[in-house]
Known about the structure:
This protein is α+β, with helices and mostly antiparallel strands. It has helices spanning 6-12, 56-59, 111-116, 125-147, 206-216, 252-273, 275-290, 302-311, 319-327, 330-333, 350-361, 416-425, 434-441, 454-462, and strands at 18-29, 33-37, 45-48, 67-76, 84-95, 151-152, 158-159, 171-172, 199-201, 218-226, 239-248, 315-318, 365-368, 395-400, 404-411, 447-453. Helix 4 crosses helix 7 (275-290).
Amino acid sequence: MKRIKIAEILRTEPVQTRVQVKGWVKAFRNNQFIALNDGSCAANLQIVVDFENTDPALLDRIKFGAAIGASGQLIESQGKGQRVELKAEEVVVYGDCNPEQYPLQPKRHSLEYLREHAHLRFRTNTFAAVFRVRHALAFAIHQFFNDRGFCYLHTPVITASDAEGAGEMFRVTTLPLERVPRTETGEIDFSLDFFERPTNLTVSGQLEAELAALALGEVYTFGPTFRAENSNTTRHLAEFWMIEPEVAFADLTDNMDLAEAMLRYVAAYALEHCTDDLKILEDRLIEEEKSKPQDQRSGLTLTEKLRFVVDNRFERLTYTEAIDILKNSNPNKKGKFQYPIEGWGADLQSEHERYLVEKHFKKPVILTNYPAAIKAFYMRLDEPRDGVPGPTVSAMDILFPGIGEIVGGSQREERLEVLRQKMRDMHIPEDELSWYLDTRRFGSCPHAGFGLGFERLVQFVTGMGNIRDVIAFPRYPGSAEF
Ligand code: 4AD
Ligand code: MG
C-alpha cells in the first residue's frame, strides 16, 4: 500500500479508501486514539486502534514522539474535532521514544529551552509551523521575481571584496594558524594561501548582482550572507539569508515600488497559503503577549498585521524629514531616547526607527535620502537640496513594526568619476574593485536594488520575537552548534 501524506488526506478526504500513513505520535489517549503528525501540515490525523485485538506490547510502544506507521480504512469520524479518521488494521513502530529520556514532553516548553534543543524543536507545533511558513515565503519570493521576468543569479559565497565596506567579514583561509607564513616585511603571506590572496565569506551579493543586471536587465540573488559583527540582539545573525534584486534603468522610486510590491505580495501569499500555520503562530503570540505590560502589546493580531501590510501604502519620507519629527518628539524632549537626536547627520538607532514606525506613523515606513557619510560607498549622490544641510545619497531603508529595518537599498552611483571620488573619500582601494568600476566605464546606466533580510521577513510574518527562532540552526557570537 502506498503511503499518503496527512495534508493530502485532509484536502481530499477520500473516505472508504484504504491508506497508509507514517509520522510521529503527538498523543495517545485511552489506549485507543493516536494523534499522528507527519509534518505535511499543522493538523494531526486521528488513528483509532482496535486495542482489544492489538498486542499489549505494541500498544505500550506507542508513546509521545515515537515514529509509527498505520494502515487501514479512512472513515468519517464519529468524534468531535475532525471529519475523517483512520481505522487502523495494522500499526508498526519504526522508532521508539522513551518518555523518561526524551527532552520534549507533551506540554509547552519555553523558546529558550527549545533553542538549546534546536535539533529537536522541529517536532513542536510552533517550530514546524515556523519552518513551513519560512518555506512558503522563500517560494513566494521566487514566484514574485520569476513572474516579473527576473533572472535568479547565484553569487559567490567566497569573495575577495567587502561589498559593504564595513569590514565585518569572516576570513576564509587554509593557511596554518599555528605557523602563519610571513613575508620579509613581516606581513601575512597570502600568496601562499589557497586563493593566493586574502578572501572572506560574502557580506552581500550586490556588487556581483550589479554586474549581471547591467546585461540581463533584472536579476535577484537569494543566498546566505555572513557578518562578523558582534551584535547579540534579537534582530542579528552572523549567518543570514538575503534577497537582493538589482534592476537596470531603475531609479529610487522604482526601487521603492518594487520593494513595496514584493513585501505586499509575500504577505498576501502567506495569508492565502499558510492559514493553519498562521493560526498556530497567532495563538502562540496572543499567549505570549498576555505576559507583557499593556503598553508593549502590539494591539493587532498576527493576521491583522499581515493584512495591514497588504492593504496599506507604506509611508515615504526623507531622512531629513524624519530627523525633524524625531527632534521634536516627546521621547526626545523628555530625554527618553538612549541616543538623543541632536541634529542632522546622526545615524538612526533602532529606538528611533521604532518610534517612527510604531508610535508616530503606526505603519511601515520608507526612509530615503540619508546623509552620504553614514551609508555605503556605492549609493548615488543626490543633487543638493534646499533645507538639507549636507550631501545625501539615494538610499532607502524600509522599517517595519516590531522589526525595524527589514530592507536596505539604493539607487547606485553609475557615474564613474563620482564613484571614484567617493571611494577615495571612504578609503576603498580602487584596484581591488576595478572589475566593479568597469561597469561604469563601459555601458554604464542608472540602476537600483535592495537587500531584504529573509529572517527579518520570517520574523514579521510568524510573529517570532527572536531571529534565532526563525532559522534552523542560528549562528551568533559564541554559538555555531549543529
Ligand atoms: O542594509 P544591508 O547591510 O544592505 C546590504 O547588504 C546591501 N548590499 C543590500 C542591497 O542594496 N543589495 O542589509 C540588507 C538587509 C537589512 O535591511 C536587514 O534586513 C538584513 O539585510 N540584515 C541582517 N539580518 C540578520 N542579521 C544581520 N546581521 C543582518 N544585517 C543585515
Ligand atoms: Mg542597512
